[in-house]
Every structure is written in structure tokens, then in C-alpha cells.
Amino acid sequence: MKKEVFKEHHRINxxxxxxxxxxxxxxxxxxxxxxxxQALKMAEEKDLDLVEISPNAEPPVCKLMDYGKFLYQQKKxxxxxxxxxxxxxxxxx
Length: 93
Hints:
- The chain has 93 residues and is α+β, with helices and mostly antiparallel strands.
- 39% of the residues lie in helices and 22% in strands.
- The protein has helices spanning 2-9, 36-45, 67-84; strands at residues 20-24, 32-35, 49-54, 61-65.
- A 4-stranded mixed sheet has the order 2-1-4-3.
- A hairpin with a 6-residue loop joins strand 3 and strand 4.
- Residues 1-7 have low confidence and may be disordered.
């Protein structure tokens, strides 16, 4: 059930409905605007997922990454933050 929440948060691969996307984080660290079909082809060739990072930008910002690994790292980071946070309990007299 939690995985479904994350999947709704980020659009991946064919869920992205823009004609063009701004691709960031490729080998060349500069961003470039390319057609969606070309970005999907690049992701498929590299055996990665095309993940929409910023859907409200014009054109939407996307990144090539392993989405399963991204979710795992995000879950791990959230768990660490939760473990480090302490709750202060005020006792009344």
C-alpha cells in the first residue's frame, strides 16, 4: 500500500504526458530539453527509469534513475530521520 503512495507521487516512464522534457543528471551534467520519446528511448537503452522530478516546470524536469533504488533510499532515509527524532513528553504534576 505504501508503494502505491510513492508511485502516485512521481510519474515514471509512460505516465509522463508532456511532449518535451528537461533532462537533468545525465552523463553531461547540463540540462537539455528533448522530446519525450527520445528521453524514454535513452532510459530504455540504459535500463533505467525516466522519473518526473518537477511536474510544474515548463517543460517538466525529469531524471534518469533506477526508481526502485530511489524508493529504497528514500524509505531508508525516512526511517533514519524517524529514529533520530526524539519526542519530548511533558508530565503534569
